[in-house]
Specification:
Elements (H helix, E strand, L loop, with lengths): L1 H16 L5 H8 L3 H13 L3 E8 L7 E9 L4 H12 L4 E7 L7 E7 L2 H14 L4 E14 L14 E3 L9 H12 L5 H8 L3 H13 L3 E8 L7 E9 L4 H13 L3 E9 L3 E7 L2 H15 L3 E13 L1
Antiparallel strand pairs: 1-7, 2-4, 2-5, 3-4, 3-11, 5-6, 5-9, 8-10, 8-11, 9-10
Helix pairs in contact: 1-3, 7-8, 9-10
Amino acid sequence: MEKEGEKDNLILFELLQNCRQSLSKIAKSTKLPQQTISYRIKKMEDTGIIKKYSINVDYSKLGYSRHSLYLDIHGLDFETVNNYLESISRIDEVSCCYTLHNLSRWKIYISIWAKDIGRYDEIQTAVLTKFKNHIKNYLSFQSVKSSTYFARVLNPKKKAKVDIKGKVSYIELKERDWKIIRELSKNAKIPIVDLAHKIKSPVATVQSRIRFMKDKEIIQRFYCVLDLKKLNMLEYNFIVRVDPAYEKELHNFMKLADTDPRFSIVIKAVGYVNLYYSFIARDDKEYNELTQKIEKAFGKGILETHKIINEDVIN
């Protein structure tokens, strides 16, 4: 079983780098037979370790800025919350919603990409109105730059891709491109022929537009969404207020996050909270080790920290 787990980790690492790559390429990278890879992927899909295949889109290349909205709510049952979030997720600028663990300071997270602060204010108002009379508190901040690593811990010996977002560009997409993005977000492994049929466009045109969006780094990667709990891992997320005067300490932390494969995302932000990060730990010992490293890197630079554990994701 342990060897199977090691094989799965190698395969998953490759799927996180590019889930559309061929079995032959994965076989070459992992030194595993194609038949084994195909069997293990199917098994991981059936058991829910692989939840879906999606794409990571850099909306900042399209003139959008990312805003994070955290809600502390009370008096609503799980089903009602999910129905609310399903409704909110249909807003074009909402990229995803999370329900958070009951032990978290905040109970809901919503990621919003807006072209200007006025539009973000409209969306925030709509969300707060949706949860009217059930909000204890809320927190909002805007991302400046983010680095996403996608579970490097699965194969720390190999260099992983890093998705960096931050520099705003103003590339205009056609409606056909948005249709492609929406379909690939649902299933990044959809065959090109099926995708072309769904959006009613020629295959060559779809191939050309995907190539364009990849070249412009609008589509940063095709990857698999994992249930880390089924891999005996847990992702811990933190939103932090850091004293800006501790610039050297912040640099030390960024270096730690860049070199330690257990870190999965770091976001520099503006607002009351100015840092978000997450890491993956297998047990309390590993969790404590990482938190001690972070405390050492920051020294007295941290003013306030909130720990968050994600539960369910609604795209």
